[in-house]
Write a structure and sequence with these properties.
75% helix; 0% strand; mainly alpha; globular
């Protein structure tokens, strides 16, 4: 009888409203604290299912362990270098240290073109690398750190030398876009085999900024001792490692950093076209997407710093004007608006230096100025009037662009999450121009600019390319999503 009554009392306790309420609150709290993991699980599971479906002896045979080894050694070198630069110079993150290092070569070639045009690309690489070595020794007052960096570098290079045939083997590789053999391979080749000046003089696309192609040439020079330019898959895949560095810089929990890294790898590798664009080709979208995300994530902090580090940052950021349409325009807009509207940091003027010298040297050495790619034939006055009076506009192209993008279901899923979280944040929190708002603004502005061009001057151009112009903000969308999820998880 006693046992029977105890069971009744236990049952009543379970049915108590407070008990149910507490359990519901615990469940809500658990879901809230794991929002990012829950959101990413469908894509991660889908990726693993696809891997298991394709898992067979053939795939195992296709695994190139030489390429894997090169990837690991290259990743270790860049991770150690970026970590050292961040710790020594307190730059605010490993990814920004890496970006500043890589762009330093391009800045030298752009600003001192009158000097560097007389030397080949290999000489410029060696010269700037030696300057970095001197700077590191001067800063550390010790040969130990520079020895570690050089040791990792030479191990990476030696490994690539001995296993070059296997690493460079692209027999199973498929080129998915004709732009690579027509333009991007040629531009990178001119930089690598000649120099930056030669590539500017013989630019295959009028007005095309050469920073992304310069980085491709630089990555090859750092890892391989070659006379002729060659596409090495591993150099592109290293941007997967670079993205992980960016994720580790984010102000999110360790749990979310791990989940985000897995999520990013899953969404990229589960889509052949997206993988091709961002980490497995000579297409420049991946470089531009990574670089702009690193810059904008640190933009507000550097804007508020108002010191020499801020000047170096904006000097480097100015190189983004010489990248890819829309991002080039947006970068220039950000620099101009920051200088003339906000006016709080005198070092912002550094953002004009790279682009200013680019125009200056074009005026001296070349017959005509090249401003922005694919704009030489545009009558901007007439185009502006078209928008004002809504004349000669094909507004239905907006729907076509959206439909074209929706074909990519995983990326669409990511973008929907990005939009929902940012809109909810704008309603929940008071608007304040911080990093999250800046990321959201740039992504929207890029989308608007793409649509404006396709409903007007490019109204008869194929819509497939619009996807590439939108996906160039992929990293921005991704880190914005991570940041918003983390804020909602930590909100009271």
């Amino acid at each position: 009888m006693f046992k029977y009554n105890s069971k009744i009392r236990s049952l009543k306790l379970i049915l108590e409203p407070n008990f149910m309420k507490n359990n519901m609150l615990k469940l809500v709290k658990l879901i809230k604290s794991s929002g990012l993991i829950i959101f990413s699980l469908p894509l991660i599971i889908n990726t693993f299912l696809n891997i298991f479906e394709k898992a067979n002896i053939k795939i195992l045979n296709e695994i190139n362990f030489a390429k894997f080894g090169s990837f690991i050694l290259g990743s270790l070198f860049f991770i150690y270098l970026s970590n050292f630069l961040n710790n020594r110079y307190l730059l605010g993150g490993k990814s920004i240290g890496l970006v500043l290092f890589l762009t330093s070569y391009f800045i030298f070639d752009t600003v001192l073109l009158f000097f560097s045009k007389n030397f080949n690309f290999k000489f410029t690489f060696i010269f700037i690398s030696l300057l970095w070595c001197v700077l590191i020794i001067y800063k550390t007052k010790s040969l130990v750190e520079i020895t570690k960096i050089l040791l990792l570098f030479f191990i990476y290079r030696i490994f690539n030398h001995f296993f070059f045939a296997e690493i460079a083997n692209n027999s199973n590789y498929q080129e998915l876009n004709t732009d690579v053999p027509v333009q991007w391979f040629g531009i990178a080749s001119m930089i690598f085999e000649e120099n930056y000046y030669f590539a500017l003089k013989n630019n295959l696309i009028e007005g095309q900024g050469l920073l992304p192609s310069y980085i491709q040439a630089l990555m090859l020079e750092m890892g391989f001792n070659l006379e002729k330019f060659q596409f090495i898959q591993i150099n592109s895949y290293l941007f997967l490692t670079f993205t992980i560095l960016l994720i580790t810089d984010l102000k999110i929990s360790k749990k979310n950093k791990i989940a985000s890294s897995i999520f990013f790898i899953a969404i990229i590798t589960n889509n052949d076209w997206l993988e091709y664009l961002l980490i497995n080709s000579l297409m420049i979208e991946g470089i531009v997407s990574f670089f702009i995300s690193v810059y904008l994530y640190n933009f507000i902090q550097m804007y508020k710093s108002n010191n020499i580090k801020s000047f170096i940052f904006f000097l480097s950021f100015g190189g983004m004007v010489l990248t890819k349409n829309f991002i080039s325009i947006i970068s220039l807009i950000l620099i101009i608006s920051s200088v003339f509207l906000l006016r709080k940091n005198v070092f912002l003027i550094g953002g004009f230096i790279v682009y200013g010298f680019n125009l200056f040297y074009q005026n001296i050495y070349f017959s005509r100025l090249q401003s922005v790619a694919y704009t030489s034939e545009i009558d901007f006055k007439d185009l502006f009037l078209d928008f004002i009076y809504l004349r000669d506009i094909e507004i239905t192209n907006v729907r076509n662009i959206i439909e074209q993008f929706l074909i990519d279901k995983p990326t669409t899923y990511l973008v929907i999450g990005f939009l929902i979280l940012n809109i909810l944040s704008l309603f929940k929190y008071k608007f304040n121009l911080n990093t999250d708002e800046l990321l959201f603004f740039v992504v929207l502005l890029n989308f608007i600019l793409v649509n404006l061009l396709y409903i007007s001057y490019w109204k008869n151009v194929e819509f497939e390319s619009s996807y590439r112009y939108i996906v160039v903000c992929f990293h921005l969308i991704f880190i914005s999503l991570l940041s918003r999820f983390s804020k909602f998880e930590n909100a009271d």
